[in-house]
Amino acid sequence: MSESWVNSAERIGTDLHLELSGPGGRRAALIRALRDAVRSGRLAPGTRLPPYRSLAADLGVARNTVADAYAELVAEGWLTARQGSGTRVAMGIPPTPFRQWGSAVPPRHAGNTPGRTPPRARGPRHDLRQGTPDVSGFPRADWLASYRRAVQQAPNEVFGPGDPAGRIELREALAEYLARARGVRCDPGRIVICSGFAHALRLLFEGRVLRGPLAVEAYGLPFHRELLTGAGVRTVPLPLDEHGARVDRLSRERGVLLTPAHQFPTGGPLHASRRAAVIDWARARGAVIVEDDYDGEFRYDRKPVGAVQGLDPERVIFIGSVSKSLSPAVRLGWMVLPEEYVEGVLAAKGEREAWASLLDQLCLADFLTRGSYDRHVRRMRQRYRGRRDRLVAALAERAPHIEVTGVAAGLHAVLRLPPGTEAATVARAEQLGVALDGLAAFRHPEAVERAVPAHDGLVVGYAAPSEHAYTAALDALCATFPDP
Ligand SMILES: Cc1ncc(COP(=O)(O)O)c(C=O)c1O
């Protein structure tokens, strides 16, 4: 006999999983199962057991069988029975360590695979890689307060399947915020919530809402290019100069992917004349501009750069996320769409929200409408500006021959290097325990055959190290550059 039961003993509010198996009939099996549950700690001292009648009903045994089993265990000292407080697990029985009952196999992770070195517990000594905000700055208290309010005030329907467009509360809050802070022209009906920029790209290209070929900046995030290639989209590199992407090189592509507020990774904004030119190109060709506004909030000492989308909302798909402003762990983003793409994107998302938690969406809506998002961004902007200033000052003092660029905004800078010296400099940094990337890591694979000029440089993220580790990271970085 071997039967598994899940007893949802609603009257006492506990679920009890018991397996009645082995020799000696049901009474003996129940005694063994309860003893094991207490011994292993699954039933903690003091836990109230279900009344005879409900456990008997759940297990499909006679009420007396349960009563006898409880009585036996009370006699043995495993349980206590007291008038008015029911039958409970006796106090003071220490659970036997799990290993005696569990498997002796250690948990599986990559490091357990034979022939592979276990992953190092610690990262590099000095982490100056771009891509991560200062995770210690996550506004835990305000986020929790918003989450609590969101869950308390949520209508019941929130706990059911969600609309693929996203919660209206969040779309309304974003419409207001994006218009105010980023110069985006939109109404909530044009916003579709997603789980971040990469998800938006998938919806657009894997969902066949847009097709290639797609022009992209010759330096960009390889992960995004690979995602596009995986979706069968050919990407064509556009050269960059001091005014940003050379949009005059656009020709027969169906669209262009740009980071106009802060070119990733080289760092400058797209020049005003180029913004106008790329809109003209898109209108003339019926093409679309995909605007990646990944860190548009973080600008330090130049005038705010509004979204290109504001110039023509019917030609630009504007995409943002909280990955840089709050945390990449939250996985929330938004797309502001021209009318012609709304239906296609919603169809690509499916019938119900399958990506972005509705509760998180309500939390972010609350966070935005209460001003917590603005406060957080202002606080982080100050912190990052301080970091940026220390980086610039350290290099000016100890490596004055190194030109620092792309520092007016964002969470990283680019240190220009003499042609042909990048690979050796990255290697030297690594020897000194400094993790960072050279610009070559971001270069489009077809850049050479398309005669896109190469730029040598280091991409230095200044957000990731904790406050106390930053000075040492700067020291190690400065030591990377030998005197000229
Ligand atoms: C260039 C660029 N675009 C977009 C993003 C945001 O990506 P996601 O929203 O998928 O986390 C990042 C990283 O945060 C980025 O570096």
Automatic annotation (TrEMBL):
Residues 24-92 form the HTH gntR-type domain. Keywords: Aminotransferase, DNA-binding, Pyridoxal phosphate, Transcription, Transcription regulation, Transferase. Residues 90-137 are annotated as: Disordered. GO terms for molecular function: DNA binding; DNA-binding transcription factor activity; pyridoxal phosphate binding; transaminase activity. It comes from the Bacteria. The keyword Glycoprotein does not apply. It holds the Pfam family GntR. In the C-terminal section; belongs to the class-I pyridoxal-phosphate-dependent aminotransferase family. PANTHER family: HTH-TYPE TRANSCRIPTIONAL REGULATORY PROTEIN GABR. This is PLP-dependent aminotransferase family protein. It comes from Streptomyces cupreus.
